[in-house]
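Hi all, posting the design record for the shared folder.

TITLE: backbone redesign
STEP: 1 of 1
STRUCTURE INPUT:
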């Protein structure tokens, strides 16, 4: 995705992404062009995708950013540059084996 609105269009399957499959996991940066990761996260949750796992993967170590992301519905918040195995472990814990989400 190129920016926040593009990422949102993909997840919500709008416009050029109308036939895209729903992802099993969203990895979301907070620092996106044209729309913040917080805005993308809030809109995904507002549109009813409460079961879609979302991991915020950000360079920000600010505790307030972590709190805000979790309050908006992120399942996990990981700081970039940390242990890659922790990231993989977190992603695996959020995405069960086999298909979970189906197209409407």
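Okay, here is what came back for every position:
SEQUENCE:
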């Amino acid at each position: 995705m190129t920016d926040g609105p593009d990422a949102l269009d993909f997840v919500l399957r709008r416009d050029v992404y109308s036939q895209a499959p729903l992802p099993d996991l969203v990895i979301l940066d907070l620092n996106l062009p044209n729309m913040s990761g917080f805005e993308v996260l809030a809109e995904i949750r507002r549109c009813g995708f409460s079961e879609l796992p979302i991991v915020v993967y950000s360079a920000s170590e600010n505790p307030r950013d972590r709190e805000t992301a979790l309050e908006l519905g992120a399942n996990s918040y990981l700081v970039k540059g940390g242990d890659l195995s922790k990231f993989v472990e977190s992603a695996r814990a959020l995405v069960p084996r086999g298909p979970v989400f189906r197209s409407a």
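COMMENT: The first strand starts at residue 26 and ends at 28.
Let me know if anyone wants the other runs.
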